[in-house]
Structures are given as structure tokens and as C-alpha cells.
Amino acid sequence: MGFLKSIGRWLKSHFVVIAGLITLGYLLLPNVVVTVFSFNKPKGRFNYEWQQFSTDAWRDPCGVADMCGSLSLSLRIAFWATIGATVLGTMIAFALVRYRFRARGAVNSLIFLPMAMPEVVMAASLLTLFLNLGAQLGFWTILIAHIMFCLSFVVVAVKARVMSMDPRLEEAARDLYAGPVQTFVRVTLPIAAPGIAAGALLAFALSFDDFIITNFNAGSTVTFPMFVWGSAQRGTPVQINVIGTAMFLVAVLLVLSGMVIGNRRNRQKA
Amino acid sequence: MATATPDAPPLAPAPAKKPPRRRGRWTPYWLLLPGLLWLFVFFALPMVYQASTSVQTGSLEEGYKVTWHFATYWDALSEYWPQFLRSVLYAGAATILCLVLGYPLAYLIAFRAGRWRNLIMILVIAPFFTSFLIRTLAWKTILADGGPVVGALNSLHVLDVTSWLGITAGDRVLATPLAVVCGLTYNFLPFMILPLYTSLERIDGRLHEAAGDLYARPFTTFRKVTFPLSMPGVVSGTLLTFIPASGDYVNADLLGSTDTRMIGNVIQTQFLRILDYPTAAALSFILMAAILIMVTLYIRKSGTEDLV
Amino acid sequence: MTSTDTDHGGDVRLSGISKAYGTFTAVHPLDLTIPQGSFFALLGASGCGKTTTLRMIAGLEEPSAGTVYLGEQEVTHLAPYKRPVNTVFQSYALFPHLDIFENVAFGLRRRGIKSVKKQVDDMLDLVQLGEQARKKPHQLSGGQQQRVAVARALINTPKVLLLDEPLGALDLKLRRQMQLELKRIQTEVGITFVHVTHDQEEAMTMADTVAVMNAGRVEQLGSPADLYENPQTTFVANFLGTSNLIEAEVDAKSGDEIVLKAGGGKLLLPEARCSAPTRTGGKVLVGVRPEKISLTHAADAGDIPAGRNRITGKIADTSFIGVSTQYVIDSPVCPEFEVYVQNIDRDARLTPGAEVVLHWNPAHTFGLDADQDIDAGVGSVDEEAAA
Question: Which domains does chain B have, with CATH numbers?
């Protein structure tokens, strides 16, 4: 009895940990499957059932027609969308935090609404605009759409950082003979940088991974998510899993090495 | 500004400005202009175009004209109300599941993870970097007929219960409502965890000790102190989950069947395959209006206005 | 008022400057001259306009009216980075992304000076932080950060160094230490220091001249001793230390002393120490500092020498604080009369309830205009004690 009781007590005090780890498992399970199945050698066109171990796909990741083309297109769009959204969003964030102006409420809702709108609504309405204007759907319409929906997220990320910034730091810079431009370049920008970087990273991830809005506004252009979508209908090549696994690993490694370098730097200085 | 001589004490009327101000009055407008213009032209204006399209009649060949044909709304609603209802139900179920699953993990990261905190945080965010379509397709493997998950559920007779409830069919999970909700929950879980974590992390750990000191059991502490203080996270988490889930069509398409079609699927098909623009625009407009009304009511009720 | 020198070479002169935010006036038109090389304190409770005044000198705030001169140069509308003035900010505002060396070198680099190494090293030695040059600000203690902030400003050899509550974030012991340290540095470099603080003790310890500010105006200006001994307003009397204020009526004048009636007794007040108009029959507030008063048990009243001001009362409360004992006396002329008695020979009869006679040398009495709030500045003193 005592044994059962102590097990019960242990479960009770570790309930949150156990439940949390189960959720974490739920979150990571698909990534495990994606990784395992990148070594599969499927029969037929679909890669849903385990057959046998093979590294074929890893040795020839671009062996599927059009896949790597769509991947490079997605990266290009994400790159430009990140730059566009980060520049525009950072400007808005600074204006919101640092200045008083009229129609603040209207500005805030115009920034909030795109985040509170189902993607399919934005996608459909943007398409009606492009159809009405007779715009050629393709790279440019995708880029326009991506900058539009990434913008608000950048604003939120940068705003949080700029708000927590002590305004006295800029006053100190001005007091120490830095003109407006110098103050911005030497003090404001470096201190706001983590927020801007977070916003940019978020924009990149959102743009690279976007499917719904892209699907509506791409015309016949095929981005990587659209390629995956199409392959779900036609047949899923193993290379998709290779790309998915590689992206996951690169992301984790980048973040981990960043952390290690940061830690070491702090320790050296301490 | 007036420069008074030393013996001219009367105050020059000062411009009404609050402390955070700058010399350039137009600077904020120049900073706002490009971004807001972008949002206006490519977000707000399309809404107007969409509203106009929804009351047009005509055909693809002859072109459309605004004829204030509001009947489109009525037709769309009477034909597609099951999909609307389904969207709300699926998204609602996924939101609740996300809250139930996400809260312990957010709590774990905020209070119990110690030096593992950063690593767990990375593991929560990292899946974002693999295309969500690839990860959603993985659920096809996980929930495959005759696979280990379905086998286990079957032998525990869980599937008997769920199929009696009508959320699975026979000994299949794939192509049923359960699979769709499972996919939605999975896809939007991080959007629940991150805001929850943000608001939990702000809670001073000493509050737990104080509550314990004042005779609250751990569960009472949670109910009376932790949970109320994490309300801003709960509100923004549920919104960030519910809104995209209700408009999603990817999960219903990849993991569901024709019986699990959500409103997103209908809008997508109408727009991109059937090319019935007025109906699609009307459906999209209804979805938008419904979401806005729900969000406004919800925010007002939960009293958290500063979400941005 | 402060300086009668004819040489205004490096003085800071504020002439009629004021600052209003909308309908709220933070600083009322103000004339002030801060002599070159002095250690000048602006003292007041929070919200009294002292920081706004400082920021107008720094150029971080533009005056609504008036002129600011540095020496002979008018700088009223000059941008802060063009002024030969530097500031030590409240909570320091050290740049978190730069190390200590780069923080200190910041001003020099912005002025296009290429070889800064020697100067920065010397300055870090002056504030005893040579070892910490490559650390980031958050790795230093509060006291060290404070010294970096001073070094960062001083290295530019400004005409004036402005200090905005520089010691506010430090604990009591460190604050005492830094007060002496700052005073040492000021003497060493000879630059004008303008120091904003809410701590009257800090202002009196460090400054040559103190301006007491209240509600956007300067209440009184003078040396610390002058302010303490001869307060001109009830605010100054209560804000700087503690004062016992008694409402009294002018009875007669005899020579250079005024005879006053208060609660049946008579009090003497030197006319020179009264800042209020004295008509016979008019009201005056009589003040005396608690440490100037002697306490005698009523039974020994006969031993008190003649010619001293006397008041009778009953001890309400005593608190022993080591160097002295503080008594609160309930007297007909003043409900809470405070008396500090040095612990030399303690009279065991002086316990709560005892009848006593308070007496002091009339020369220590000061007179104030009765037309003001008798309790002005009292709350601010309480705030002080808590800080």
C-alpha cells in the first residue's frame, strides 16, 4: 500500500511535467515520422507506409522534377518578403511607440485585423482585387501578399522590444554628442536589433511556409508548399521528407549554436 | 517659440504635447505611410472589392456587374450552412484541445523546466521550420488504417466509443472528423502555447509561495492565482487558435473526406475551381463578419483589450 | 542672489525659463545663476520641476519661454549634442550593447576623436574601474555602474555636469560613500556640477548652494547652513530637517527683538530672523529646530536661566535612537512639539506623561509669514525617512 501511495504522490507532484511532456511528444511526433520516412523506399507513388531502409532520397534530394525549383522560388520570395515586411513593420513600430499622432486607434486596428482574419478571407479578397485590376498572377502577386500578412507580425515583435527600451538611452546618446542619425545607428538600432531580428525571422518562417494565401494568388507559379500540396494529390516523393528533415535540423542547429556561442561569450566576460 | 526677456515672466502658451515627443511633427506620418498604405491597398481595399463582388451577377464570359443581388448571401447560407457549422465545431473543439494540451506544457516551461527551459522552447518552435504541409501529411502515416495508433485505439475499444459518438467511422480514424480535429489541434498548438507561456512567465513565482503560505492547496493556488493571472494568455491563445482553425481547409482536405468539408474548402473550391466569384465572395464575407463579431464579443467579455 | 561676481565666464544663467505641458505648468518662470565651478543642488520632492529644469539645461527639453545661457553663449534652442554639457542620468542609461570602455569612449568618438585609449583608461582609473573596461554594464554592481555613468559624462570635460538623482538607486551605505566620492571628483576636476535630488541630506552634504524647489518654483536659495538656520517659508522649514512651528501674535518690539504672544506666554524673536511683516497684532509663525531646545522637568523650572524662550507641555512619546533621544511634547501652543536631546546626562524622570518646560535661546528662533500652510513640505519629509 505504501508503495502505491508513494507512486500516487509522485504522479501528483509531477502531473504537470508528465502532461507537458506528452504534449511535447504530440508536437514532435510528426517530425519524427517525417525524418524516419525520409529513409523509406516506398512502393508506388505515395510515401505513407514503411517499406525498407534506403538513403536514395538523401543522395539525390533534387531528383524530383520541379521540386528544387519551387524550393528556391519559396526561398527567394521569403527573402524579399522578409526584407519588405521588416522595413515597413519596423517603421510602423517606431512610429507607434515613439510618437503621438492622430487616428492612433484606426492605425492599431489596421495592424491588428490582418492577424485576426482567417487566411482564406484575406486570400480570397486579395484575389478579387487582383482579378479586378487584371493583374498577372505570379511572383509579384505572391510577394505583395506575403509582405501584407507578415507586416503585422513584424510590428508586434519590434513594438514589444522598442517599448521596453529606456528612452533615456537615446537621450544619453544625444547628450554625448551623437546627432539624430548617429543616435539611431549607434544606439537605437543595436538595442532594437533583437526585436527586429525576431520579427524578421517570424516573417521568413511565415512567408516560406504559407500555403493558403499563396495558393489563391500564385496563378500557375508553384512555391514549395504548393508543390507539397500538389504531390499529396499526385504522389509524395521521399525527397519532400528529406527537405523537411533538413530544414528542421538546420533550424535546431542554428538556434543551438547561437545559444552555445551566447553562453560562452557571457561566461568569458563574467 | 517665443524667447522671453529675463523680466517678462508671463507664460507663452506652450503647444500641447506630451513628454515623448520630437521636434519633427510629420515624422510619425512619414514612418507610418508606406506600411499603412500597403495594408490599405492590399488588405482593406480588397475587402471592399470582395464586398462588391458578392453582390454582383453575371458570368465569367460576359463579365460581372454590381446588381445589389443580396440573394447570393441567402443562397450561399442555405446551401453551405452545414460547412459553416462544422467549421465552428471543429475549430472550437481544436481550440479546447489546444488549451487543455498546451497549458501544462506552457506551465512546465514557465515554472518547472529549470535549465531545460530553452531546449523545450526550441523544440516547441522548431517544427515551424518544417513545412506544415509535410508535417500534416505525416499524420496520414500516423493515423493510417491498421497502423499502431489505430490498432491500439481499437484494442482499447476507444474507436467503438468514438464511432458511436459519430466522430470516427468503423475502425478508421483517417478521413473522419477526429482526424481533422487532431490535425487542426496539432497545427495550431504552438499558437496556444506561446501566448500562454508569455503570460505565465510574467507571474512572480513568489505568488505561489504566498498562496501556499495563506493555506491554499496547490490546486487552489492554480485556480485562484495562476489561472486568473494567465487570462491574457488564454484569451490571445484561444483567438490565435480559433481564428485560423475556422478558416483552414488544409487539414480537412488532407486528413478528412467529403463529409468533413469545412467552409474554407467551399470558398477555395468556389473561387479556384468552380469560379463562381459572387458566391465565394459572399461566403468569405460571411466568415469574416462572423469571426469579427465573435472576436469582438469574446474580447469584450474577457476584458482584455490590449492584444496588439 | 547667488553670485555677485562680475565675471560670468562659465556661469549657467537661466533667465525667465518656464515649461508647460498643455495646461500643466511644470516650471514657473525662473531666474537662476549657477556660478562656474560650484556644486549646485536642486532639491525638491518628486514632481516639483527640478528634473525638468535640469533637462532644459541639458537641451533634452525645450523651454516654453525664457533663455538659457552657458557663459556668454545662448543655448536655449541648441540641440543637446551641440551643447558643452553632459548628464549623469537617473538609473544611469548605460548603453547595454556596449562594454564599459566603449560606453566611456562614446562621447569622444562621436566628436571624431580617433585615439581615445589613453583618455578612457585615465578616466576609468579616476573612478577606479580600470579592471572592468571590457565588461558589459549589466555585469557591474549598482555603485560601479554609477561611476561608469559619471566617467562617461566627465571624459568630455563639459562646462557643466548635470546629475539627475544619481544616487537614487543605491542603498544607504553606498550612497554615503558615493556622496563623498562625487564631492572628491568635483573638487579634483573643478567642473560645475548641477545635482538634482529629493534627498535633503544628500543636497546638504554635497552642495555649496542649494535651491529648494516646490510646485515649479524656487522656494529659497542659499548655502545649506543658511537654508537650515534661516528658512524663509514653511515648506523649506519642514522639508529640510524638522521644524516646530507655533502660531503667535506680535505684541511689541523692543530694540531689535520682537515680543510675541503665544498661548498666554511670551516669546522673543530677533527681528533680523523674521521674513514676515510684523505689525503689532499681526500673526507670525515662530519656528525653532528640535535640537536647539532644552528639556527640563517641571519640578526644576526654577533653575532655567532668565531670558530664554519657554513653553510648557507634557511628554507624549519618547524614542531612544542612540546619539540622542527624541521627545514628542504635547503643548498648548503646538500639539506635536519635537525635541532632540543629546544623550549626555539622561534625566530618568523624562518619561511619557511627565510635565516639562521647553526652553531655548531666543537667537535660535525664526519667524515666517503666517499666511501659508503650516504643514507644507511635511509629507515629503516622511517620504524621505522611508527611502
Answer: 86-279 (1.10.3720.10)
